[in-house]
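Hello,

Our lab assistant flagged a job as stuck in the queue for most of the afternoon. It eventually completed. Since we weren't sure the result was trustworthy after the delay, we are filing this so someone can double-check. Below is the sequence as submitted and the structure that was eventually returned. Let us know if re-running is recommended.
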Amino acid sequence: MEAELSQMRETPAVYTRDLHYSYDDRPAVIAGISLTVAQGASMGIVGRNGAGKTTLFMLLCGILRPIRGEISVAGKPVAYRTFNPDIGYVFQNPDDQLFSPTVFDDILFGPINMKFSRREASQRAEEAMSQCGCGSLARRPSHHLSGGEKRMVAIATVLAMRPGVMLYDEPTSNLDVAGKRMVSSLLVQRDTTNLVASHDLEFVCEVCDEVCVLKEGCVAAVGPAREIMARKDLMQGAGLEVPYSLR
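-- returned structure --
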């Protein structure tokens, strides 16, 4: 039993090897990314617009199929367009994620489709709403919410499914200070593996132990977040600025 637990801990939460992807009108969006993320780690994925952050996330959860390369989550190969309960993706645009009549229905959707009983699914939805501070919004139509409220509801829809790996694409967009603080608390306190793609580099410094810097679809550097992002030459070469807290 101890050997099995040790092996589980040693299995990367996310693993890619020589990953490649291109769109028809833009070749080499992902150009040979090899990345290993340990169980329980929080890694920031940073890079200028077009560096490949969102495309990488869509590959990791099977929305896109790589041209070549390997992807596994929790030791299992990722299958194209197949639901994987081990990984949850919070989209950059909440409107792409919210489609039900009410907030509660949106958050309930995932657990219900995972075949949980109505009671269990409702408990998960209630817990996720509480974690994201959106319980008072339960009966409101999602499309009537503010941008920040939509962001927190979108996060709750994924948390309700309780995946082991969470992908957050620009999670602080449209959030005020209180909203950012809540997302920060979620990332720091939850026992999950978190990948955070963000242009908010101060936020990445706050919530991520490690960072992967992408440049033109390639890994420019990966390592301790504050150490990597303090390197002015590296950051400027990737079209980024050193966070103010590290200057």
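-- support follow-up --
The delay was a queue issue, not a problem with the job. The result is valid. The radius of gyration is 18 Å. The CA atoms of residues 43 and 210 lie 5 Å apart.
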